[in-house]
Structures are given as structure tokens and as C-alpha cells.
Amino acid sequence: MLDPGYVKDHLPDVEARLRTRGFDPGPELAELAACDAERRRLIPLVENLKRDQKTAGEAVARAKKEGRDAADVVAASKTRAAEIRELEAALEAVEARWRERLLTLPNLPHESVPVGTSAADNPEVRRWGTAPSFDFEPKPHWELGAALGILDFERATRMSGARFAVLSGAGARLERALIDFMLDLHTRDHGYREVEPPFLVNRAALTGTGNLPKFEQDLFRIAGDWDLFLIPTAEVPLTNLHREEILDGRLLPLKYTAYTPCFRSEAGSYGADVRGLIRQHQFDKVELVKFTTPDSSHAELEALTRDAETVLERLGLPYRRVLLCTGDMGFASAKTYDIEVWLPSQQTYREISSCSNTEAFQARRAQIRYRADGTGKPQFVHTLNGSGLAVGRTLIAILENGQRRDGSIAIPPALQPYMGGVEAIEPGS
Questions:
Q1: Strands of 12-110, DSSP E
Q2: Contact 127/337 with Cβ under 8 angstroms?
Q3: Is the per-residue pLDDT at 353 higher than 60?
Q4: Is pLDDT above 70 for 267?
Q5: Which of 101, 244, 359, 393 is the most exposed place for a label (fewest CB within 10 A)?
């Protein structure tokens, strides 16, 4: 959530910066201004009536003490009390409407984010590795996996519908190996604390990270009386670990990592990447989340992004980093880097991680604050998140970049200990 005071005092700046995201904030800002004007009208009315009520109460007490009749004062107090209740209800409704509108506004882009309208405007920051060359036509991962007997979409469709997959044999083992490899790297080498969070969260948790109320159609909600949702990413429970807490600033940054399955209905995106594992309703991911001070958050974003890139470097997978322009960023982000891995079958780079600094946007929604020296006035932390990495897409990259003419797949040396020493996936494995 944006800083309400900043929005009120800098409306032209807020509107201009939000428009660079391709978002027209006009109706929301007009409603916020109207709500603020109504709040400013109602608040003094309520305060004046409460002051009069207190004075009347003192007058009744004096009258009773002196044995005088105070019936008229009591009757006026009853009328005034009813008026106060009515005005307070109106004020509560206005503040609820004001908050609802504020929750629909995306984050303001950081000043270092380039202005643009789509992915075509995202500048490349760096590139690592060399795309492999083949003396045969490289196959897509869905053909490679099916031929090896490790990837089955047909059976998954019969039990769950489109955009689900079954991994078996060496395919299932490769998925598990990647999860263990990533968690070991981030905890051992990068200093993150591993967490196993709930995979179901409530509405407040999703509101805190910015998934609700705007993107409810992209979530899987539990039926019945349970107001719970399957997590779209471990970012949600990890960020909410410190919901409504005041942290000791001397302990920041706090760094967490978690493996979870992720669930996304992604309404409206059907038809894009419907073949293979690129876009599934259920997928595995290792997530990275940080809680930092405002003055260090952008340096911590650079470090978090490097932590995610290291996974690909250890696996020998070519990638590039791009900086997302204003029109291509996520709702909660102030600045985002995408890491894109090379896929030979498509002859292009595809996203495998998004690393974002949301600044105080999520912390303000989830009421996560810190005291700089453990004491003093609390202020909002900055929260960061990134995939470290999307496991299924990493599996895709290994299959496609490691494919051989005979259909077998070379396992990266760094991953072989997690595969029991297996150096290649052969047909029937």
C-alpha cells in the first residue's frame, strides 16, 4: 500500500508515476480525494459532539450533586449520543472505502526503473554463459521427457485437467534433486534461514503481499466455510512471518528461503505456453525473501538477484538479466530484475526468476515495522522477494541444454551428487 500521506500531499506526482505503469489512477485518486474531504468534514463534527457530550455529563453530575433537575440535559445527551453513533458509522464507512481504494493502487516505480510499456522495453543488464550448439535439431522438453518416460501430460490431464504434469522415475528424482540443491546453496553459501511454511493462507496474508483484493481470480480458494487460499508463491507466507510485528533493526536484514508447491489459476492467460511445463497450475519453487532497512534495500536487491543467478551458474545454464520497465512490473514491485534462462528449442531466453524490491508497499499493508537501534519510533521495513529458482523451469533448461543426439540428458556436475552420482538420464531411467 502506498503511503497515504504521500498520496494526499503529492497527487500530481503519484498520478504521473502510476501512469508510466500503463495504469490510469484517475478514478481511484478522485475517490481518495473525495473520501479524504469527507473524513475531514466528519472528524471535527464527531470531536465537537464528544466534547459537548463530556461537558453535558459534567453538568448532569453537578446537578445531581446539587439536587437540581437535569432531565433536559440528559435528554439532549441521548439525542447527541445517537448523532455521534450515526456520524461514527459514516466515518467508519468512509475510511473503509478510502482503504479499499488505496489497496487497488500499484506501487510507485523506483527512479532507476526505465519507462516503458512492455517486455520489449526491458533493457538487458548482463549475460552469462554460452548457448550450446548442437549437430542435430534440438527438441523441446515435452518431447524429450516423453521419449525418456519421465514426463507424462496425458495421465495428468485425465486426473486433473489441462496444465498439470506427472514426473516419474528420473524426472521426479531430478525435481527433488534441484530442490535440495537450491536449498543447500541458499542456506549454506548465501546465509538464508530455511522455512517450511503453510501452503494454505488466509485473506489477510494475501492482502499483505498485494495478491488481494485485485487478483483474486488468479488464486485457488478452498471451498466451503474455509476462507483459505492455496499459495501462489512462498513469498506470501514468508513475508507474513512477521506480520504485525516490530523487528529489531539491529538484526536486519532477515533472510528466508523455502521450497513450496505453488498454485495459480492464471485466469486470462490460457492459450500462452499451454504445451509443456512453462505455465502450469501447480509447480515447485524455491523462494527467497528479505526484510531490510530502507537505506539498504536496493543493495540487498542486487545481492538477492546474484544469489538466484548463482544457481544457474553452478548448473552451467546460460542466462541473462533484464531490468523490467515501468509497464512490465508486478503490482507490488518498485523495481524488478528478471533472470531469463536459454531454451534451445525456442532459441530464446525465458523467465526463470523475478527478483523484486517492494520497498514499504507490502510492509505497510501487513504492518511490519522495525526500530533502528532496537528502540525509538518504529518505521516500516522494506521487503524483497525472488525465485531462487522456479524448479520446473530449471528442469526444462537442464533437459533442453543437456540433450544429446541419442535422446539422453547430461546431468550438470554440481547436481550429480543429488542424483546419486548419475551422470545422465537414459531412456527408461
A1: none
A2: no
A3: yes
A4: no
A5: 244
Q: Residue 429: which pLDDT band, with cuts at 50, 70 and 90?
A: confident
What is the tens place of the pLDDT at every residue in 85-143?
999 999 999 999 999 999 999 999 999 999 999 999 999 999 999 999 999 999 999 99
Q: Which residues share a beta bridge with 67?
A: none
C-alpha cell read off for 123: 533493457
| Sign of the torsion angle spanned by Cα atoms 28, 34, 37, 39 | negative
Q: Which fold has domain 119-425?
A: BirA Bifunctional Protein; domain 2 (3.30.930)
116, 325 contact by CB (below 8 A): yes
Phi and psi angles of residue 48, each rounded to the nearest 5 degrees, phi first: -65, -45
Q: Where in the chain is the domain with CATH 1.10.287.40?
A: 4-103
189: its cell numbers:
553459501
Report CA-CA distances (Å) from 378 to 116, 236, 243, 295: 36, 23, 14, 15
Q: For the chain, count helices (H), then strands (E).
A: 12, 17
- Tens digits of per-residue pLDDT, 165-207? 999 999 999 999 999 999 999 999 999 999 999 999 999 999 9
Here the cell at position 402 is: 543437456
Q: Which residues does 97 contact at the CB level (< 8 Å), separation at least 6? A: 31, 35
**Cis peptide upstream of residue 178 (ω within 30 degrees of 0):** no
pLDDT at 192: 98
Fold of 4-103: Helix Hairpins (1.10.287)
- Cα-only R_g, the chain: 27
Cis amide leading into 253 (omega within 30): yes
Which residues have a catalytic role annotated?
264, 279, 351, 354, 393
Instruction: State the span(s) of the chain assigned CATH 3.30.930.10.
Output: 119-425
Kindly report, residue by residue over 31-70, the tens digit of the pLDDT.
999 999 999 999 999 999 999 999 999 998 998 888 888 8
Q: What is the DSSP string of 232-244?
A: SSTHHHHHGGGTT
User: Which three three-digit cell numbers place residue 186?
Assistant: 541458499
